[in-house]
Amino acid sequence: MINKKTKGELIEFYTKDRCPLNGFLISKNNKDVMIIVHGMNSNFYGNISLRMSDIFLKNGFDIFPINTRGHDRISAYRIRKGNKLKRVIAGTSFEKFEDCKYDIKAAVDLLYSIGYKNIILAGHSTGCQKSVYYLMNYNKVKAVVFLGPGDDYNIFKKEFKDNFNVLKKKLKKIKDKNKIFFDMYNKHNYSWSAQRFDSIINRVEGRIFNYKLNNLKEFGKIKIPIL
């Protein structure tokens, strides 16, 4: 874990579409800084992010663990629409995966604006897919680190067994894809909207690290150094 004497700064920043996010910048005046992107149901202050942060600090990097709008199982934020504040439900259960490109871009832009020259992404679990998707749309970092890039599509297919195909058929009949589609919290630790499940099985999120596909075309487009 991070040494209790290590000091950092809690930072709120905003995405292009005005989503408020938080991160914790720990600076030891290094030239290189690592943005840490969490996985499903997690956040910037979760156990995994803190363990990674400790390793990166010891190896000469400043660190900036961040929240994406998909942090924790279910979360919420407010955006201003004219004179009113609109409440948006998010978190892993409700996030639109493709919005992660705005979340990571906002963190990258912030770090450049305060003077960093070398920014590196470090994704954990589904944070790896988010890092790839960011790089498919923007290319403003020096390198990327993938820690535990899981094949979510085939993980869930194996975990749900016969229920996987049942859920796929049920998904096609759902009209309001923003409502909870299934709640398997006790057994599987998931409570997902239909939109979130559809993202895994039918959209780019489920393809990025689907190791049973003949080629990982999204991953193959990355041109920067990879660890």
Topology (SSEs and partners):
Layout: E1 9-14, E2 20-25, E3 32-37, H1 47-58, E4 62-66, E5 75-81, E6 84-90, H2 100-113, E7 118-124, H3 126-137, E8 143-147, H4 152-160, H5 162-173, E9 180-184, H6 185-188, E10 190-193, H7 194-202, H8 204-208, H9 217-220
Parallel strand pairs: 3-4, 3-7, 7-8
Antiparallel strand pairs: 1-2, 5-6, 9-10
Helix pairs in contact: 2-3, 4-5
Describe the structure.
The chain has helices spanning 47-58, 100-113, 126-137, 152-160, 162-173, 185-188, 194-202, 204-208, 217-220, and strands at residues 9-14, 20-25, 32-37, 62-66, 75-81, 84-90, 118-124, 143-147, 180-184, 190-193. The protein is α/β, with parallel strands linked by helices. The strands form four sheets. It has a four-stranded parallel sheet with strand order 4-3-7-8, with helices on both faces. Helix 2 (100-113) crosses helix 3 and helix 4 packs across helix 5. It starts with 8 loop residues before the first strand and ends in a 7-residue tail after the last helix.
Relevant terms:
227 residues; alpha/beta; 9 helices
Could you give a quick summary of the protein structure above?
The protein has 227 residues and is of the alpha/beta class.
Distance between the termini: 22 Å
Q: How is the largest sheet built, in terms of strand order? A: 4-3-7-8
Q: Helix share of residues?
A: 25-40%
Q: Tell me, briefly, the overall form.
A: globular
How much of the residues is beta strand, in percent? 25-35%
- The low-confidence parts are none
Mind summarizing the main beta sheet? 4 strands, parallel
Number of strands: 10
Topology as H/E string?
A: EEEHEEEHEHEHHEHEHHH
How many alpha or pi helices?
Answer: 9
Report Rg.
Answer: 18 Å
Structural category is alpha/beta
Summarize model confidence as the mean pLDDT. Answer: 89
